[in-house]
Amino acid sequence: MRSGGDAGHARRMTDIALAAKERQTWWATGFALIYDTTLRPGEVFGMSRRRSELLREARGRTLEIGAGTGLNVPHYPKDVTELILTEPDPSMYRKLRRRAAGRATVVAAPAERLPFADGSVDTVVSTLVLCTVSEPRATLGEIRRVLRPGGRLLLIEHVRAHGRVLAGVQRLLRGPWASFARGCRCDQETEEILRAAGFETDLRPARWRAMPPVVAPLVVGRAVPTPAP
Ligand SMILES: C[S@@+](CC[C@H](N)C(=O)[O-])C[C@H]1O[C@@H](n2cnc3c(N)ncnc32)[C@H](O)[C@@H]1O
User: Fold this and answer.
1) Beta-carbon contacts of residue 229 (< 8 Å; ≥ 6 apart)
2) Rounded CA gap, 25 and 223, in Å?
3) Where are the domains of the chain?
4) By CB atoms within 10 Å of each CB, which of 16, 71, 81, 96 scores lowest?
5) Interval between CA 132 and ligand 1 midpoint (Å)
6) What is the tens place of the pLDDT at every residue in 35-73?
7) Is the CB of 127 under 6 A from ligand 1?
8) For the sheet containing 80-86, what is the strand order?
9) Pairing mode of beta strands 217-225, 147-158
10) Which fold has domain 6-224?
């Protein structure tokens, strides 16, 4: 996150996300309906492979936040002993239940309030979610709380561009994009937010191909909570 005015920036971004979600309950249904089709080109041109490569690292009791329609479900390896998928949006949740039937437990819950015990999870997964949660810091606090010592957060997130031109375009399109994508902040500074929340990160940059340029810059990898001082 930017230094100076951090709190104000975070508040504005939260307002954008909340306003977009609250204004458009009718669009929630439509968005869930078109979600897989809209993401399809990106999945074909690399995202599906990327999900698979990352999720190979999932181990033990694994909790996915904001699981959406369940695009990660086919990619979980056998080392995952229990899979729990959480999703707060009722339209997404219905699709998720169908896709995950017999493979995972599906729980309707926002990432800011995870209904799981402290230190009860080995792996947390977040793909394209930290841009959309209403309260990223609260979400990371919850992830820290539920992870066992030695547990890891695996993530694929689209982020603010490094280049000034694309970052400028992201800033211009922030509002319309959030309206379209149900509160998604196209220029979320996720790596900075992770560090500010006390996570050590091992992330590499990547590109989400065949998708709109405002969400093309990705970070992929893992983060671990640093011990509280
Ligand atoms: C862009 S979709 C990503 C879905 C899925 N993870 C994927 O990789 O395709 C963002 C998801 O985050 C969910 N979401 C929105 N607000 C959330 C919150 N506060 N906590 C958890 N998930 C949230 C949305 O309902 C949606 O399913």
Assistant:
1) none
2) 33
3) 6-224
4) 81
5) 6
6) 999 999 999 999 999 999 999 999 999 999 999 999 999
7) yes
8) 105-107, 80-86, 60-64, 121-127, 147-158, 217-225, 199-207
9) antiparallel
10) Rossmann fold (3.40.50)
